[in-house]
Amino acid sequence: SYVLAQPPSVSVAPGKTARITCGGNDIGRKSVNWYQQRPGLAPILVIYYDTDRPSGIPERFSGSNSGNTATLTISRVEAGDEADYFCQVWDSDTDHRVFGGGTKLTVV
Amino acid sequence: EVQMVESGGGLAQPGGSLRLSCAASGFIFSGYEMNWVRRAPGEGLEWISYISGHGTTRYYADSVKGRFTISRDNAENSLYLQMDNLRADDTAIYYCARSTNPTTELDFWGRGTLVTVSS
Question: Which chain B residue lies closest to A34 (C-alpha atoms)?
């Protein structure tokens, strides 16, 4: 089955840029979605189709995808961005949605 | 306003059963495909099941196949998850989430319901 690898944690200072990676075999050929989950709350979609932002998501959130790595970039990080972030793709070989293990973003 | 509210969670014994429900409002329920996703304590998100708009196509994660059954009632704007032969590692918060087809993003999620499997 298809495996997505994320770093368990990323730390960033307020106002700086955070980059969260999602590695997978030839992931550049797949469409990657990203979700944010703050403690105690439901997940929300922050990036879909690699680079698109749903309405209401700040422009500070952006995505890219090429080769074996997809990246979620959060510019001008704020304290409120502290959350778990998950990448997700569709595995057409198994007809399964697959999530990465998640990355805890800490704003220090 | 789009809303999805899960219910039916609680404490179950190993080998027992529970039926989760997800009540949807604020959108044309039959026009969306639906999913169940869970998050166990200390773990990440795990997709567990999908159902098409009219219920003709269903997919399951290997971890629940043969034990869980997804269904929907479009007249009642409701999604269900019948969970049988529960195990301790099914303990998690269970979320319903909608999509426009199986390969696309999960664009809206409910707030979840907690299932605890313990003797």
Answer: B105
C-beta separation of A32 from A90 below 8 A: no
Q: Read off the tokens for A94.
A: 């198994």
Q: What is the pLDDT of residues B83-115, one digit of tens each?
A: 999 999 999 999 999 999 888 999 999 999 999
DSSP letters for chain B:
--EEEEE--EEE-TT--EEEEEEEESS-GGGSEEEEEEE-TTS-EEEEEEE-TTS--EEE-TTTTTTEEEEEETTTTEEEEEE-S--GGG-EEEEEEEESSTTS---EE---EEEEE--
**Res. B40 pLDDT band, cuts 50 70 90:** very high
Interface test with A, best of B5, B105, B108 (most A CBs within 10 A): B105
Using a CB-CB distance cutoff of 8 angstroms, which residues of chain A are in contact with residue B37? 43
pLDDT digits (tens, 9 = 90+) for A52-63: 999 999 999 999
Q: Considering only CB atoms, which residues of chain B are within 8 Å of chain A?
A: 35, 37, 39, 44-47, 50, 59, 61-62, 95, 97, 102-112
Q: Report how far residue B5's alpha carbon sits from residue B24's, in angstroms, rounded to the nearest whole number.
A: 7
Whether B109 sits inside 8 A of A44 (CB atoms) is yes
d(CA B32, CA B17): 27
Q: Give residue B101's pLDDT.
A: 85
Contact assessment for residue A79 and residue A11, using Cβ atoms and an 8 Å cutoff: no
Residue A89 near residue A29, CB atoms below 8 Å: no
